[in-house]
Amino acid sequence: MSRIAVIGAGAWGTAIAIVLGRRGGHEVCLWAHEAEVCDSINARHVNELFLADCPIPAAIVATNSFEQALRDASIVVSVMPSHHTRRVFLAMQPHLRADMLFVSATKGIENDTYLRMSEVIADVLRPLSPRIGALSGPTFAREVALSQPTALAVASTDSALAATVQKEFSDPRFRVYTNDDVVGVELGGSLKNIVAIAAGVCDGLGLGHNSVAALITRGLAEITRLVAACGGRPETMAGLAGLGDLVLTCTGGLSRNRSVGVELGHGRRLNDIIAGMHGMVAEGVLTTNAAVGLARKMGVEMPITEQMHAILHDGKPPQEAIRDLMSRPSTSETALVRNR
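The structure corresponding to this sequence follows.
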């Protein structure tokens, strides 16, 4: 029996624990920051704060203790907000071992360093030479928790790790593909959140399907440019962690990032929107800042990301951002994908 520690009991971390717990053959311990989440899971087998109405298998144990969560674990799944990843791994470090497999299921880029989450983990755990994979794809936590068919990818340059995660996580309703393009899978999963906020802005402004379709397509083009500049493969962006996740997050009503954009389009202030999310995180808000920095570092043009940064962090009116995007100098679609 595999002992798996899931670190982070938000909606996505809880959904992953449910997947692992429902298939049997696993001992799953879910670490939660909030004491009330532990109480809710252990006493009533539901995460009332972050994933209400989704039953949690009775075999899953929740804890606030890193020592308890990590004791004898063979796989550690990291599912905390990106801006907490470094701090949490530093706190866990005394309880981690070199023989553990680490799986990052967080979609984000660290501010200031511009590191992907697997790079943050590797940086903190450098003395252990950790074996790390990244799990990403089109996954709304509630649908996963309710056993709706889902497909996603685990990316690692360590083929044995990827094969192990594929075997341990897959079941008839949760299909895991392997991929060795860690850069593409992680950046695709992170950057799509920015485009999803932009898609929500279009909806909030009352724009039509033409606008959203163009946004998704051109958003994918600029994500692909940055992925390629960072050493990832453009073809990865045609897969689950690229186009699949982008379409889901830009069009699905369960997308928190898209919902933030809708409210921005309605004219609400970002601080007010975030305050009303009751602890839930829209990763795209922070990722936008890091993505702009990374794009400038790599010399890659990302006009949609730049305009979203201006809306989110500079208070630019959404209507003005749309106008500036549409009035950019005309160019060739294929030339723009390759070179700009």
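The first strand starts at residue 2 and ends at 7.
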